[in-house]
Amino acid sequence: MNRRLNLDAHLLGILKHNGSRRAFAARLDMTIKRAKVTSGRVARSLGVPEREVTLWRAGVTVPKSTDCARLSELLDVDVVWLCAGQA
């Protein structure tokens, strides 16, 4: 639970900093490409509209912490690395 609260706080911070959003978007985009999946498949797996995944990949918005956790599982990457760029 505490880790989720920290992740929520971090994600809110990302929204305030354009550079952080772009860095998150770059990690997400690279990971999706390496996994050889489409935005549509990611969206269906998470139960969100494909447009939402497209906005995440473009750095316009960031996902909720629950979606980040599910993204990390789907794409087989560490959630902290995906959201914060840290191992």
TrEMBL record:
- The UniProt record lists the HTH cro/C1-type domain at 42-82
Q: Where is the signal peptide?
A: none
Report the superkingdom from the record.
Bacteria
Q: Protein name, please? A: XRE family transcriptional regulator
Organism equals Paraburkholderia podalyriae
